[in-house]
Each structure stands twice: as C-alpha cells, then as structure tokens.
Design a protein that fits this description.
Blueprint lengths: L7 H20 L6 H13 L2 E2 H8 L3 H13 L3 E5 L7 E5 L1 H25 L1 H16 L1
Antiparallel strand pairs: 1-3, 2-3
Helix pairs in contact: 1-5, 2-5, 5-6
C-alpha cells in the first residue's frame, strides 16, 4: 500500500527512521545508538535527573525509557540513586566511564550532523529543527 502524499504521520515516521539510521551508523563506531546518546547528553546537562523528568524531556514512555537505560547501566555509563531520602524515584548521573563515552560520541554525532546538513542543507535543517521542537513544546 502506497503512502498518500498528505499522510503527515507516515511522512514524519519515515523521515525519522531515515535520520535515525544515519545517526545510528555513526554512533555504532562508539557502541551507542542515537537514542542512548541523547539520553546521556540530557543527563549530563541536568544531572542528577529523575527518570520521570528524563522521560518527559525525551517524550518517551517510562517503560521504553527503562529498556533504553538498561544497557547504559549494565555498561557502567550511568549510576542511579534515590532522588530523596524517602523517595522511590531514581536520580540518574553519568559515571566517569559515561562521561568519557559521551566525549567520544560527540565527535560521531558531529559527523552525523554534518552529513545530514550536507544532504539536506544547513538552512533547511535549522528550519526543520525549529518546527519539530515547536511541535513537541506545544
């Protein structure tokens, strides 16, 4: 079945898969996915970060987020502790290993970003980013 030209959802999802594959190809060189890289960046920026806040920022279901976090914790990139003394909420932070992995991954992310902007155009990419972020901030 062919997608209709006015099927916004299909067009966005198809583009998202294409872009994710491009970034994942670059991230594979450091053993991360683009989703894992985004998680590490957000935690680095606002550590310690609760899982609820991270799920909200990533616009992800918590169960999906937990599945994405498991390999990061298993590989020693993240640490978690109780957010408060009597809280069941976990606060996430990068470990030293996680910090080092993020530094390496930023180079790969930059290469993916550059490749996307070469293919799509830097101006168009900036405009697209603004529009997409506006959609999820509404």
């Amino acid at each position: 079945m062919e997608a209709l030209p006015d099927d916004d959802c299909f067009a966005i999802r198809q583009a998202a898969r294409y872009v994710s594959q491009l970034y994942d190809r670059h991230m594979a060189q450091v053993g991360l996915t683009i989703t894992q890289f985004s998680i590490l960046r957000r935690i680095k920026r606002a550590a310690p970060m609760t899982m609820k806040k991270l799920a909200d920022e990533m616009v992800m279901e918590r169960t999906t987020l937990v599945r994405a976090l498991q390999p990061l914790q298993r590989d020693g990139l993240l640490s978690s502790r109780s957010a408060e003394a009597k809280s069941r909420e976990l606060a996430l932070s990068l470990t030293e290993t996680g910090e080092a992995k993020l530094i390496d991954a930023r180079l790969r992310w930059r290469a993916a970003q550059d490749e996307f902007e070469r293919r799509f155009g830097a101006q168009r990419a900036a405009s697209l980013r603004r529009e997409l972020f506006a959609m999820t901030k509404a």
